[in-house]
Amino acid sequence: MSILKTCNVKYTYDGKKPVLKNISAEFEAGKIYAILGTSGCGKTTLLSLLGGLDSPSEGRVLFREEDILKGGLAGHRKHNVAFVFQSYNLIDYMTAVENVALTAKLAPLPVLERLGLTKEEARRNVLKLSGGQQQRVAIARALASDAGVILADEPTGNLDEDTAAEIMDILRECAHERKKCVIVVTHSIDLAQQADVIFRLKKGELVL
């Protein structure tokens, strides 16, 4: 049974340019999904709709069979989904531990250490961390929440190949062992091939 679903979702910019066309898809807990597509094809827009950052022009997004508009988009973002943004979206005057603690249901430090940060690094201001370390903090923030769905926008885009592989292993573990639904948008075929299910977004349409 799906935890997250889109039903005939359409999205247009300014009511004119169609970005997404009649997208219907189901996402289950315990699996990692990749949405593959070129830059500008609408991947991030689709992720925003799934996460309640925006509303479809037409169609519905359902969480556990209920329209996310019914409980409010803010409630959906707060309780049901956790984001990993490509730009990190960390609070720059806080440490790594403090950033994770903002949304954590788990103790922040063990999660950060699982992602490769030392105790010393975890207690540093995030601006004193490398780009790869900041990305790990952003991922830790999502993993430490109790949200059933993790939405990741190019989560390995700023990382070297070895680190990217480690991050994908962690996301896959999060899906398979912690039974979360993990949805990753990417333009990397290599990264997408590590997912359980691959969708391709092309010309506004989503296909397996």
How would you characterize this protein structure?
The chain is of the alpha/beta class and 208 residues long. It is built from nine helices and ten strands. The strands form two sheets. The protein has a six-stranded mixed sheet, sandwiched between helices. Strand 9 and strand 10 (205-207) form a beta hairpin. The model has no long low-confidence stretch (mean pLDDT 92).
Strand content: 25-35%
The helix content is 25-40%
Globally, the shape reads: globular
- Let me know the number of strands: 10
- Total of helices: 9
The low-confidence parts are none
Series of H and E elements: EEEHEEHHEHHHHEHEHEE
Main sheet: strands, sense, barrel: 6 strands, mixed
Structural class of the secondary structure composition? Answer: alpha/beta
Query: What is the strand arrangement across the widest sheet?
Result: 6-7-8-3-9-10
Mean pLDDT across all residues, rounded? Answer: 92
Radius of gyration: 17 Å
End-to-end span in angstroms? 18 Å
